[in-house]
Amino acid sequence: MRERYDIWVREFMDSWKELDYQRTLKTLDKNVLYYENPIDNPCKDFDEVINLWNVVADNQKNIEYKYEIISFNEELCIVNWQMKRTMTASNIRQEIDGIFQISINDKGKCTYFKQWRFTREV
What we know:
Number of domains: 1
Strand content: over 45%
Number of helices: 4
Radius of gyration: 14 Å
Oligomer: single chain
CATH architecture: Roll
Strand order of the largest sheet: 1-5-4-3-2
Shape: globular
Helix content: 25-40%
Number of strands: 5
Order of helices and strands: HHEHHEEEE
């Protein structure tokens, strides 16, 4: 099971790093329960998820990341991830430390996605 989660996280993060939002979207099930922010309601539909991701290539660059799978079972996986990126418009470098809570189905698609993150300028 760990390997399935590892494959998913690597594909999700690699596609983000390469600014290929269409590839990122392919890691998600069309009916994913997607929380961009843990205290907000989840996206109402997949079109809202698309709208979150289709701006990534325009607003960030120079992405570096690493991650560690903290805990997992058949139902969910907890991932701690760190990223450095440059915001395109301001050229400000950011550092992020975050947590993903994910569930994936038998097809390797994410059906539940919730993230917490802290971002600061470096």
